[in-house]
Amino acid sequence: MEEKFYLVRQYIDDNPGADIGEVSEANEVPIKQIERWIREERLSFTADSPIGIPCEWCGKTIKSGRYCSECADKLGNTLKNLYSSEEEAEHTKQKSKGNKMRYIEHEMGN
Ligand SMILES: [Zn+2]
């Protein structure tokens, strides 16, 4: 997969206007894999690229990471208020990830 990653990155450099479906087909990489690289912030896009992934919290299109800047702020503040230590917040965030995903699927289903 690492080779594919470099292929994809090169392809995006050469074709900044390609959408995620085109990138997937041209490089024979599943869209899911491309999205994972975006979440890991290994791929980045110009502001006018059509490629984006939904914020895990509100669904707004973002270019990298997991949350839009608004939600990142909001979540950061919430965690800071709820937990006194950074370490504890990190631990709880990971533990609740599964619940959060189900919550979002539920929201989208309605
Ligand atoms: Zn958001």
Give a short synopsis of this structure.
The protein is built from six helices and two strands; from the N terminus they run αααββααα. The protein has helices at 2-14, 20-27, 31-39, 69-82, 86-95, 97-109; strands at residues 53-54, 61-62.
Overview of this protein structure:
This protein has 110 residues and is mostly helical. Helix content is 61%, strand content 4%. The chain has six helices and two strands, in the order αααββααα. It has helices at 2-14, 20-27, 31-39, 69-82, 86-95, 97-109, and strands spanning 53-54, 61-62. The protein has a two-stranded antiparallel ribbon with strand order 1-2. Strand 1 and strand 2 form a beta hairpin. Helix 1 packs across helix 2 (20-27). The longest helix has 14 residues, at 69-82. It binds zinc ion (ZN). Zinc ion is lined by residues 55, 57-58, 60, 67-68, 70-71. The site of zinc ion has 8 residues, from helix 4.
Q: Kindly state the mean pLDDT as a whole number? A: 82
Q: In sequence order, what are the helices and strands, one letter per element?
A: HHHEEHHH
Portion of residues in beta strands equals under 5%
- Percent helix, as a range, is 55-70%
Using the alpha-carbon principal axes, give the shape.
elongated
Question: Distance between termini?
Answer: 36 Å
**Bound small molecules, deduplicated:** zinc ion
Largest sheet: 2 strands, antiparallel
Please work out how many helical segments DSSP would assign. Answer: 6
What is the SS-derived class?
Answer: mainly alpha
Radius of gyration: 16 Å
